[in-house]
Design brief:
Blueprint lengths: L20 E5 L3 H7 L4 H21 L4 E8 L7 H24 L2 E6 L7 H14 L5 E9 L1 H15 L9 H4 L13 E4 L18 E4 L9 H12 L9 H6 L5 H4 L10
Parallel strand pairs: 1-2, 1-5, 2-4, 3-4, 5-6
Helix pairs in contact: 1-2, 2-3, 3-4
Bound molecules: 3-methylbut-3-enyl trihydrogen diphosphate (IPE) (2 copies) and magnesium ion.
């Protein structure tokens, strides 16, 4: 199945009441545990429960794509015990959840530089992706050893190798199919829990026109009503994609050709 999605910088995407794609930085696990005098890793374990809750919440709200940042390319800098706990948790979570995800019609995808993972984990990822490949209720993407800069660079390298003759003349549409989430529309709504207001090298390319929502809630405390608050905020935003508010109200869409053309009196809206 190959579906082409609108690039927010090439054309004006359709905007609905419910975000098609929600991308989340699940932050605050360590602080959640610390507040309870528990080891940081207890927060990660509890965080898996929130993942389960969010998968169900997205299905019941008709959200087609949920993307979760589970481990960044910079998280290797953490203490070795925490990194190895997270890797084991990933294995256990996959073993425990894949069957349930499949039964709920969820398609699983894992994006990131997976070459760094041990073979046992890599095999589980591949098995899970293969088992759920044809499911259509929700596409759950887990970003693991993911970095936005890595993603753009790997896409650029793939493209340059495939078309050495075109180097120096690539356009956005040439690069987009090589990005690791080319199978999904760009995120409509980006949520970060845990109070920090930064991207931390998440989906740099894909978040170009996403609506940002930050909450102080720690990831293990994030729940259905917190998701609804984020969606309510999303609904209240005017997504202009470069146009004026008046143009948005009139429903003016600009064709890709005219995006880069100087305006004439005729184009005046
Ligand atoms: C997010 O929670 C989970 C991962 C980065 C794996 P943190 O572990 O970053 O929690 P805080 O930010 O230290 O509270
Ligand atoms: C971002 O959280 C990565 C994930 C949630 C997986 P971090 O907690 O690692 O982000 P920084 O380091 O505070 O920016
Ligand atoms: Mg953190």
């Amino acid at each position: 199945m190959s579906v082409k999605f609108t690039s927010s910088t090439q054309a004006i995407p359709a905007v609905g009441d419910v975000p098609r794609h929600v991308a989340i930085i699940m932050d605050g696990n360590g602080r959640w545990a610390k507040k309870r005098f528990m080891p940081r890793v207890a927060g990660h374990k509890r965080g898996v429960e929130t993942v389960r809750t969010m998968v169900k919440a997205c299905i019941s709200r008709g959200i087609g794509y949920l993307t979760l940042f589970a481990f960044s390319s910079e998280n290797w800098r953490r203490p070795v015990e925490e990194v190895s706990f997270l890797m084991n948790l990933f294995v256990t979570a996959l073993q425990g959840e894949i069957g349930k995800l499949h039964a709920n019609g969820v398609r699983l995808r894992v994006v990131g530089d997976l070459s760094a993972f041990e073979p046992r984990l890599l095999a589980l990822i591949r098995e899970g992706e293969a088992l759920t490949a044809n499911n259509t209720h929700l596409t759950l993407t887990v970003a693991a050893n993911y970095g936005g800069r890595w993603d753009i660079l790997q896409a650029m390298n793939q493209l340059a190798l495939a078309h050495p003759e075109k180097v120096g003349h690539f356009g956005e549409a040439d690069l987009a199919p090589h990005l690791s989430m080319a199978y999904a529309p760009e995120p409509d709504l980006f949520i970060r829990t845990g109070g920090e207001q930064r991207i931390s090298n998440f989906l740099l390319w894909q978040l170009a026109y996403s609506e940002f929502y930050f909450t102080d809630l720690l990831w293990p405390d994030f729940d259905d009503s917190a998701l609804d608050a984020a969606i309510d905020s999303y609904r209240s935003r005017e997504r202009r994609f470069g146009r004026t508010s008046e143009q948005v109200i009139k429903g003016v869409t600009v064709s890709p050709a005219s995006t880069f053309r100087s305006p004439t009196a005729k184009d005046d809206a």
